[in-house]
């Protein structure tokens, strides 16, 4: 009995299979009666019932979704942007359990992007080179963009094309990410070369507070444009990136963003630093590496 258990100050979890609208109502009522958790299994209909429950009980009761595989787990934690609060793995396959763990580990990683202030120390216009626009399957806001850099240990936050100008309409799905040889921070904390990215793959969108989310790529458009080398120092470390030399390319700052055309020595922008090296994009913290 739920009320009796709560009177005894015990944590309560209800376990229910959602087969109908009536089952949804049972969970909502249990949340109103202060159930701590609801372990929910879905049959044929999965997304809509979960959306309904998240909308009704988020913040009142923790939703734990059953998942037989990593795909179901990923769907559950991303539904309605908020997602389920946890996953109950319903499988004895250890490989599948590991994949579910990786999905949850990636979700945890999203809250751990540390951004720091870096002082601009060098600005050098370069010649024409291949640069890439990364068009995503989502819309970004001011202060959001991709982390890119010449080194796998230092990334600049390049803002999406969210600003309206007299000459160019906003394209909030796009980040003009710079040279095709740059590293970009992708899902699961891995790095990728921009030149390797393909339609359907994932990259990590980050905002100026460090919050992040995974989005899919719609297209990568490579064109030849004038480039600019930007150098900055943070905690005694030099970091570099190469971007298109144009007014619409902006680096994120604490208070907003600044165009590379307006950038000058002494300005501060947001960067992300990492220790160690990379092995096929995977961080190896103990590895020593020199990138100049």
Explain how this protein is built.
This protein is of the alpha+beta class. It folds into two domains: 2-109, Aldolase class I (TIM Barrel); 116-284, Beta Complex (Endonuclease - Pi-scei, Chain A, domain 1), CATH 2.170.16. The protein is 18% helix and 42% strand. The chain has helices spanning 2-7, 21-32, 47-57, 70-78, 94-109; strands spanning 13-18, 37-42, 62-67, 86-89, 116-136, 144-151, 154-159, 174-179, 183-185, 191-193, 202-207, 212-234, 237-244, 250-252, 257-259, 268-273, 277-279, 282-284. A six-stranded antiparallel β-barrel has the order 5-12-11-6-7-16. Helix 4 (70-78) packs parallel to helix 5 (94-109). The protein is elongated and about 70 Å long. The model has no long low-confidence stretch (mean pLDDT 90).
| N-to-C series of helices and strands | HEHEHEHEHEEEEEEEEEEEEEE
What name is given to the CATH topology of the largest domain? Answer: Endonuclease - Pi-scei, Chain A, domain 1
Number of domains: 2
Strand content: 35-45%
| CATH class division of the largest domain | Mainly Beta
**Uncertain runs with pLDDT below 50, 5 residues or more?**
none
User: What is the rounded Rg?
Assistant: 23 Å
Structural class: alpha+beta
Average pLDDT metric: 90
Distance between the termini: 66 Å
How is the largest sheet built, in terms of strand order? 5-12-11-6-7-16
The largest β sheet comes out as: 6 strands, antiparallel, barrel
Task: Give the fraction of residues assigned to helices.
Answer: 10-25%
In the CATH hierarchy, what is the architecture of the largest domain at level 2? Answer: Beta Complex
Shape estimate = elongated
Number of helical regions = 5
**Using DSSP, what is the number of strands?**
18
